[in-house]
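ok trying again, last paste got cut off:
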Amino acid sequence: MIVAFGPWFVKPWTDGAWLYRRDITTLFAMQTQEQVTTIEEIRNTIALNLKKFRSERGIAQEKLALIAGVDRTMVSKIERQLTNPSIETLLKLANVLDVRVSDLLS
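nice, full thing came through this time. structure:
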């Protein structure tokens, strides 16, 4: 993006139209008003979704861990929101539960 400080306009990166500086300020303000997600909220979402998918399929924590190839305490810790699972762990659990990783995160 090219910013011109004198004439108070900027040239955007895509369509060739000119935007005024106040428009850019508005865009940045909108960007900062996005909802901030905390790690606790992410842990809670993963925990609730993991419990839901696991119970829908009637799989015990220990059996899920055994099939997924993760430590049995890991599933318990994830569901109790005590740990941050790695992407690899989430992928293993999602594959066993036949869901996408994004389903565990949303």
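cool. The beta strands are 2-4, 9-11, 19-20. Helices lie at 21-32, 39-56, 61-68, 72-79, 87-97, 101-105.
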